[in-house]
Amino acid sequence: MWHTSDLRRPRVFLSFAGKDRLTAERFRRDLSECEIEAFVFPPGGNIVLDINRALTQSDYFVLLWSQASRDRPWVDAEWSAAFVRELQERRSFLFIVRLDTTPLPPLLAPRQYLDAFDGDWDELVRELAATWRRDIAVGEPVLPAPQSPATDNGEVQRTIVLYVRNRALSVAHTVVVPEESTGQDLEGLVRDALALPDIEEKFDGMIGMRFYYRLMSAGKQISVDSGRLVDSHIMNGSTIDLEVQIESFGPDGKSPIVTYRQGVSAGLSPPATRALINSAFSHLIPW
């Protein structure tokens, strides 16, 4: 189940090594002040059942990574289970907070992470709490954010995270874009990030759909001619609605362009419509 908890108090599983327990306890207390309920596994008890129960009931998972947690079997088991759950639900579930510079496991190395050893601890806690609340407020499962884009010389750009939501597909995705992006930039970045297709065909092109896209903010279309997103009050954490418009074609010709919603036939039979939509957007739809 997605988001088992009350929206006012998201539940978070904290994974850590025994030597980092004091840090985990501090993290739990600080999250509690942000109305986030964090689970810190106590010593003793039935470790397998307790971990399984806490993981099942948690909305998010935070791995507190350090030299102490490296190659610890239970830590490995916990984050591996969280990684699998994230893949199954296809949404942001596993978050990483580094307590020192110890390299992450190869499977986690490409992911985004937060550093707690060279920054503002309180700001880190607030950032995580705000991220989880934004995820929940979007109202759809949110897939993990990609890596921040880099400039040609390898320097990381200043970026903002936008929630790109499609209600017909019942899913949202986080897309990281440069802070200075324009409306035209955004269209290209979203299409690239989500691999949005232009056309989908079946039966050697006898039937198919052409796709067109509109990005909406607060009920208004974001024009490719608009200036910087920040000048249109689109900022970090904003939700952008993605509308998919389809034009179907078949032996009898083309149908009018319509905005896709669940149940729309667009001139084709319902099974054909479902097959084409699933083929085009299955990589975006949560399992």
Note down, in words, how this protein is organized.
By secondary structure, the protein is of the alpha/beta class. It is built from six helices and 14 strands. It has helices at about 20-35, 45-55, 75-90, 120-140, 185-195, 270-280, and strands spanning about 10-15, 35-40, 60-65, 95-100, 115, 140-145, 160-165, 170-180, 200, 205-215, 220, 240-250, 255, 260. The strands form two sheets. Strands 6, 7, 8, 9, 10, 11, 12, 13 and 14 form a nine-stranded mixed sheet that branches. Strands 2-1-3-4-5 form a five-stranded parallel sheet, with helices on both faces. It starts with 10 loop residues before the first strand and ends in a 6-residue tail after the last helix. Mean pLDDT is about 85; it is low at about 1-5 and about 145-150.
Largest sheet: 9 strands, mixed
Helix content: 25-40%
Counting DSSP H or I runs of 4 or more residues, the number of helices is 6
What is the radius of gyration computed over CA atoms, rounded to a whole number of angstroms? 22 Å
Q: Pairing-aware structural class of the strands and helices?
A: alpha/beta
Topology:
Blueprint: E1 11-15, H1 21-33, E2 37-40, H2 47-57, E3 60-65, H3 73-89, E4 94-98, E5 114-115, H4 121-138, E6 142-143, E7 159-166, E8 171-178, H5 183-194, E9 199-202, E10 207-217, E11 220-221, E12 239-250, E13 253-254, E14 258-259, H6 270-281
Parallel strand pairs: 1-2, 1-3, 3-4, 4-5, 6-8, 7-12
Antiparallel strand pairs: 7-8, 9-10, 10-11, 10-12, 12-13, 12-14
